[in-house]
Amino acid sequence: MKSLALALAMTAALAAMTGCEKKPKATKQKPVAGLTDVELKRGEEACKAYVDKVCACAQTKPDLAQQCQLAKALPEALQIALSVATHPDTKPDVATQSYDSARQTIGTCIEEASKLLSLGCN
Fold it and tell me: Is 94 part of a structural domain of the chain?
């Protein structure tokens, strides 16, 4: 009888340990806000247009040669940020940062292109 009570107590303890464990709830990750196709196309066009304009202007204004060289890296930076963001192994927080980086790069292309007119470029 004593061994039966001990067995029941051990079974109850074991059941309590495994059955009553609180399992962590599976937290659903918010979907990462990517770039729309329109946003991406406009961004790529904006960066290409900026590179074309600043490099064309640098041919007549040698002081813009370095700006031309730096501008050539912007389309590649955009593509790198997008490839990191869309890679299947990229964690959501990194994907969000990469999309933000892509948007900042697009913004830089647009801002720098708008400054070209004040530098005497058409």
Answer: yes
